[in-house]
Amino acid sequence: MKIAVGADHRATEVVMQVIQSLKAAGHEVEHMGVNCDTSNGNGNSCDYPDQAYPVAKAVADGAVDGGILLCGTGIGMSIAANKVPGIRAALVHDEIGARVCRQHNNANVLCLSADMLGMRIIEQIIDAWINTPFDGGRHARRLAKITAIEQGREPSTVTDADIPA
After folding, report:
1. Which of 31, 93, 104, 139 is catalytic?
2. What's the pTM value of the predicted model, to 2 decimals?
């Protein structure tokens, strides 16, 4: 799987571990976003929207198969990524959420908290997210309704013709 990864200053150390773990599992990883190196002691910060956008855009454009975003809480990344049409970013705190966001919502961007989760659980969440397929069925109808909302349409107007096979 080709995965775009981004993080703000609160997650610079964690994202490097995530990248190493993904590569070790055989995934192709693109580290995206602006440089927010905090190792110089100056406390350089970087804004999460600047990190979320290139990852979400790469996913929406089909340049990568999925995206992983990390910040202090994961909340800001989730909000910013979900502004990109076609993105279904899910903030996840456990393996159950990782599986359900793929099965039911076909989440294409995974958002994680670097401050509230340890590396072991982050790796377990990522593994569950990557290895869980979308269930389709009634969930495909719901995703078509989300797409309608993105297009400024009333979701209740979605018909069977709007639902991808």
Report:
1. 104
2. 0.92
> Catalytic: 104?
yes
Helix, strand, coil % in the chain, rounded to nearest 5: 45, 15, 40
User: For every one of its 165 residues, what pLDDT tens digit does the chain have, with 9 covering 90 and above?
Assistant: 999 999 998 898 899 999 999 999 999 999 996 666 555 555 567 889 999 999 999 999 999 999 999 999 999 999 999 999 999 999 999 999 999 999 999 999 999 999 999 999 999 999 999 999 999 988 999 999 999 999 999 999 998 888 887
Which residue in 36, 71, 101, 111 is the catalytic one? 71
- Evaluated on CA atoms 40, 10, 60, 81, the torsion sign reads negative
Structural domains of the chain ordered from first start: 2-134 (3.40.1400.10), 136-165 (no CATH)
